[in-house]
Protein 1
Amino acid sequence: MTTVQTATGPAQTMVLNMGPQHPSTHGVLRVLLELDGETVVKADVDIGYLHTGIEKSAEALNYSQTITLTDRMDYLAPLSNNLVYCLAVEKLLGLEVPKRAQYIRVLLTELTRIGSHLVWLGTHAIDLGAMSVFLYCFREREEILKIFELVSGQRMMTSYFRIGGLALEPPVGWTDHVEKILQSFPSRIDEYEELLTKNRIWLGRTQGVGILTADDAIALGISGPSLRGSGVEYDVRKYFPYSSYDEFDFKVPVRTEGDCYARYLCRVEEMRESLKIVRQALKKLPPDGPIKADAPGIVPPQREKMKTEMEALIYHFKIFTEGFAPPPGEVFQRIESPRGELGCFIASDGSPKPYRMKVRAPSFVNLQALQKMVEGRLVADVIACIGTLDIVLGEIDR
Amino acid sequence: MTDTPDLEQNPTVAKIRAWQPVAVANVSMFRGELTIVIYREHLRPLGEFLATDPNLAFTYLSDVTGVDRFPIEPRFELNYHLLSLSRREPLRLRVRVPGSDPVIDSVVPVWPTANWHEREIFDLFGVRFEGHPDLRRMFLPEDWEGYPLRKDYPVEGPR
C-alpha cells in the first residue's frame, strides 16, 4: 500500500495485477492497475509476451517468403496483413496489379473486416455479460472463414495475396457462397442490434465509459473505428485510396460521443458498409481475366508455360532460388485494416531480401489510449475499455 | 533515390526552408513519397512548427521507424511518418543518429503517440530519447542484453 494524492485528497492505493492470462485481456495483455478502492488511479500496460521477432525474421527471408509471416501478426485479419505487405512491395517495384485481382482483394478484405468485427462484437459482449451474442457472431464468422478456405485452402493463415496479384484462381462457383452471405447477413446484423443496441445493461456498461475526445485521439495516434467514434473522419480507404477503393461507393460511419457505445455503433455500421462494398465488388468483378500482373521475374510463370518455354523455366528457377531484387529505396504503405491504419515500411538496399521491414500496427498505437480511458473509472470499466479498443496481441508484439 | 528539381517548389519543403534554412540536409521523392532529411538538433523545434503551423497542420504522427545502416556512419536512421489530416498529405521526416552517440530529442511533447514508438526503438535499436517521460524497454525483459534489430546483433541471440 502506498499513499498518493488523488482529486479527493490523499488515498491508500494498492496495485492489482491483471493478466497476462486473463480471458478478458484478449490474449496476453498485462495491465498493472493502481487502485484506490475500486477506482483506477493508474493503469500501466505491459506487453511483449507474444513478441515473435517477425521484423527481424523478415530481414533473413526474401520478399515472397515474408508473406507467410504477415498472416501471423493480426491473426483475426490475415488478408489485410497480406494486402498491406503486398501493396508495399508492389509500390517499391512500381508494379500494377490487374483490375480483377484488385476487386477480389477488396472483396476478401471487406469480408475480413466483417469477420474481425464479429469476433470483436462477440468477445466484447461476452466480457460485459451478454453470452448469446458471442455464439451468434461465431456462427456467422464461420461462413466467412469457409469462403477463405474455398479460395485459399486455409481458414486463417491464408497467404492468399501475393506480390503482383493472387496466389491462385478462385474455384468455380465461389461467388455463390458470397451471394449467400450477402443475402443472409443484413438480417443477422439486425439480430445483434436487437440484442444489444437498446439493451439497458449494454447501455449502462458502454455509454459514457472510456471517453476519448477528438483532440486526445489524434494526439495519441488512434485510428480506425476507435478514432471515428470520437468524431474524426479519417479512413485510409477515403483519404489515400488503394486497390481501386476510389471506385466504390460507401460511407464512413462517424460518431461524436467518443465513448464505448459510439465505437460499438461505428463498428456495427461499418459491417453494413462493408457488405455494400462486397456487393459492388461482386458486380464489378469480370468473370475471367488475369489475376496476376504480367511481370516475368517477379510473378512465378504458369505451370503449363514452364513445360514449353525455356524462359518461363528459367524465371521460375530464379524466383524460387534467389528471389527478385527491387530498386533501392524506402516506401510506406498504409491501408485501413479492421482495427485502423495498418502501415508497412520497407527499406530496400537492392538485394532480394528486405533490408528493413516494419509494420505500423494499429492495435499497438490504439492500446496507448487505455491509460487515458480508464483513469478515475471503476475496475469493471477497464474490461469494457480493453474490449472496445479491439486489440490483437499478435499484432501489438509482432 | 531521385532528386527532381521541382521539389524545391513543393509548398511543404518551401515552408520548412523558409522557417530554418540550415535544418534541411536533403529532399527526395521516391514512388510519390516525399522525404525530408533534417539534422537531429532541429527535430523537436521543427516538429513543433509542423504540428502547430495552421498551413501545415501535421498533427498526426503515424509511425516512427528505426533503420540500422551498419557499418555506414551515422548508422541509425529514424523515419517519422507524419500526416496532415486536414490537408490529406503525408510526409516523411528522416533524422540520422551516429552509433557513437545514439541520442536524440524525444518528440513526445509534440506528438504524445511517440511515447511507445520511441520506447520500441530504444528497446530494439538502443537509441536513447532525451526528455522521454518513461524510457523503458517495450517488448523485451528488462534484463535483456543488446538490441536485437541492430544489424550486428546475432540472429541466434546473445552469446
Protein 2
Amino acid sequence: MTDDREQNRAADALLINALADGELDAASALALETRLAKEPELARRYAAVVALRRAIREKIQPESAPASLRDRVSALAEADPPREAAPRRRTRAWSSLLVPALAAAMAVGVGLDRLWLSSSEPDPRIDSLVAAFRRGQIADQPVDVVASDRHVVKPWLARKLPVSTVVVDLAGEGFPLVGARIDIVAGQPAPTLVYRRREHQIALTELSSASLSSARGALQGYSSEAWRDGDRSYVVVSDVAPAELALFAELFRKAAAGERR
Amino acid sequence: MTSETARRRFTHEVLPHLDDAYSLARWLTGNATDAEDVVQEACLRALKALDGALVENPRAWLLAIIRNTTFTWLAKNRPHALVLSGGEDEARAQQVEDFASPTPEEELIAKADRESVTAAIEALPLVFKETLVMREINGLSYREIGQATGAPIGTVMSRLARARALLVATLGQGS
C-alpha cells in the first residue's frame, strides 16, 4: 500500500517536471492539466517546480567563456596550417564563386570596384563572426537588446562600448532592425546589429580597425561581405542569398554615409 | 596532427558552443580556473575526435566531452567529490520530498536570492547537478541530456525530478 503510494508519487514527479519542461505530448499534457485542476496537492508540487525554474532563470545569469579562454581555444583551430594543400583548394573555391558573385553584383547594380576578391587566407575574424552568427541562430534570442527602433539600439550600444556606432533604419527597404548584441572579435568587443529579411537574419559587425580587407566570400553555406569605411571596417554575415546580402550592404553604405553628414 | 577539415569543423561546430561548455564545466568543477583547464582539455579532445566522428548534435556532443573530461579531472584532483553511483543520494532525495511544508514552497522559492539559489545547486550530488545544469543553464532537451550523459531518458527524468525535489526542499523550507 505504502509502496504503491510512493511509486505513484514518483511517477507524478516525472510528469509534473516533464510538463514544466514542455516535454509532454499534447494528450498527456491535457490529462495532467485536468488532474492539476482537481488535485490541490499535485498542483502545489507543480507550482513549486515552476517557481524553481523561474527562480533559476531570473537569478542565475548565464556565464560567457572568458575572452582569454576563447582566444586560446580558437587558436587550437589555427595551429599548424597545411601550407601546400591550401592554395590549390582555394583557387578552385574562388573561381567557382566568381561567376555567381559577378552575376549577383550586376543583378543589384553594385559597382564592380566593390568586387574585389581576396587572394589571401580568409580572415580569422570573419570566421569568428560566422561562428557568432550561427550561435545567434541557435539561441532563442539572437540579440542582447531587442528593438526595431534605432534610437533605442544606438544608446544601448553607447552604454556598452566606448565608440559611437552607426545604426541605420532600413525597414523601408525590407530589412527591419531586430536589435543588437556585442560580439567578441579577436579578443575585442564589437557592436553587431541584427537585421531581418523574411525569415533570415543579417548580422552586421563594426570593427574599429581598418585592417580588414574588402572581400566577399562564402563559408559553410553562409555569405559574408567585408568593406572599409574610413577608420572602420564592416562585416556582414547572413544566410540570405549573396545577391540580397550585396543589396543590403549597398543600402547600408548609402544610409550610413547619409547618417554621418 | 589534425586535418584541415577537423579544424574547420571545430570552428563551426565547437566554438559556437563555448559558452555552454564553459558554464557546464564551471558548475561541475565549482570554480572558474578549473573550468578553463577542463574546457581547454576537452576542446583538444574534441578537435582530435573531429577527424573521424560523425556528429549529429554538436552541442550535446561537446557537452558530453566536457562532462567526461570533468570527471577524469575530478577523479585525479578531487577524488572525494566524485560520487557517480548516486544510489544513496537518490534515496535521500526521495525522503526529502516527503517533508510537507505548511507554507507553499512557491512563495519561498520566489523570494530566494541569487546566493542561496547558487549554493543550493552547488550542494547537489554530482549526477543531479549535471542533469539540472544541462537542463536549466544549457537549455538541453531530455533527449539531448540523454545523449550527453549516456543515460536512458527515464533516468534523465528521474534525476531531474529528484534534483528539483532537493532544490525545492532547500529553497522552499524557509530559514
